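User: Reviewer 2 asked us to show a designed sequence for the structure in our supplementary figure. I'm pasting the structure tokens here. Could you produce the per-position amino acids so we can include them in the response letter?
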């Protein structure tokens, strides 16, 4: 069976991420995508940067498309390394800094989450809250 993240689940992930953003005092844009990297849900918190709308969407897309957290692409895409220039491919949608994570179920990537609006570590912290909620739902058999 192929699993797809539905809107209700995506909203739960966005809510968990936004709670973390509130805790750290940094408005964010949070995006949840399906396994193909297509938008399921996106929310821009009050006062979050407008540029973060496309950045968070692209972080989710990158994580789904490449089955990896975006921060793991940073070093390999530096000059002289094997993936140098990666961020210039795929019509500029590839992001090589932190804040995007794949969402897995039974070993398969079924979606992704991206957060943008602060420093990279803040983006990662916020997105990780969504990943944690996803894992809780999967473990409880609710996703």
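Assistant: Here is a per-position design you can include in the supplement:
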């Amino acid at each position: 069976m192929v699993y797809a993240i539905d809107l209700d689940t995506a909203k739960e992930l966005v809510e968990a991420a936004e709670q973390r953003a509130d805790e750290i005092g940094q408005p964010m844009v949070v995006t949840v995508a399906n396994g193909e990297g297509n938008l399921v849900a996106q929310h821009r918190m009050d006062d979050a940067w407008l540029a973060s709308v496309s950045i968070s969407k692209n972080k989710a897309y990158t994580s789904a498309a490449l089955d990896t957290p975006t921060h793991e692409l940073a070093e390999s895409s530096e000059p002289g390394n094997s993936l140098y220039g990666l961020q210039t491919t795929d019509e500029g949608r590839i992001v090589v800094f932190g804040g995007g994570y794949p969402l897995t179920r039974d070993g398969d990537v079924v979606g992704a989450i991206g957060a943008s609006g602060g420093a990279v570590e803040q983006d990662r912290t916020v997105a990780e809250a969504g990943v944690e909620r996803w894992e809780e739902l999967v473990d409880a058999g609710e996703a």
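For the response letter, you might also mention the following. The chain has a mean pLDDT of 96. Residues 120-139 form the longest helix (20 residues).
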